[in-house]
Known about the structure:
Elements: H1 10-20, E1 32-33, H2 36-46, E2 53-57, H3 63-71, E3 74-79, H4 82-92, E4 96-100, H5 103-109, E5 116-120, H6 126-134, H7 137-140, E6 145-151, H8 152-159, H9 169-177, E7 178-186, E8 191-192, E9 199-206, H10 211-224, H11 232-243, H12 247-256, H13 270-280
Parallel strand pairs: 2-3, 2-5, 3-4, 5-6
Antiparallel strand pairs: 1-8, 6-9, 7-9
Helix pairs in contact: 2-3, 5-6, 6-9, 9-10, 9-13, 10-11, 10-13, 11-12
Amino acid sequence: MVFEGLDDSPRRIRELLDERGLSLKKRWGQNFMISRAARERIVASLEPDADDLVWEIGSGLGAITELLVERARRVVVFEVDYGLMQVIEERFGETVSIVAGDAVKTLPAADEPPDRIAGNLPYRSAAAIVSAILETPRLISGAKRLVFTVQREMALRMVAAPDTSDYSPFSVLCQLNARVKHGGDLSRGNFYPAPDVVSSIVIMDPAPLEPTMRALCAQVARALFAQRRKTISNNASSLADALGADVGTVRSIIVAAGVDLSARAESVPPGLFLEIARRLSGLGDYSGRT
């Protein structure tokens, strides 16, 4: 068969790509997962049910797709490479639906929201893809679990605790919208071509905020992290400007939320960013703008 032995063999992958006149594009971060144990680990972490609609971001040649098709009611793959789409269509036929294009744009516009989302995400766009999902309420309001492989440095940012160098506005976004767990590392040898970095599995169980509050929390985190080495009191002026509010009022609200103005944003846990946002939402004209 055309696809027999493909998923675990760099030689077979090279042969297939050559036969189809396809080449891997570095700008899209195409690294196929050639370890069945790693793929099984990802799908086991996702825990798909027979009734689930599962989205897969970046299907590649279909190695993870094959496992998902065996376990889920329906699989929709999001792929940017038209050559790989043709392989997926030939390999799976009507058992898989394909959405073509940049996932950052196509995910929010997709019709039926998923029960679960998986993806071996391209390193360069992984943060943008995760942010697009978390910032689109209908995608995560009913989702049970998201499981991604990302660059290890990004995974550490997603799970980072306050008072660490990895803690950032992206950490706050992830942790306020989901329970995030580091699911372990995958060495370079699990992929073809082997990437220059170590990858990590990240498991996310959505617990989304109300949309307007999510937008305000993101704005608060970005503003208070604007100049990382400055105090919250200093960065409060950036937040006040963004909200069109008096800086003294904003500082008073931050203090009332239980945050020390002399501290830095990196010491503020996600829950306190949420408390600041809740109190700021009472200023009157906030409408979710960012």
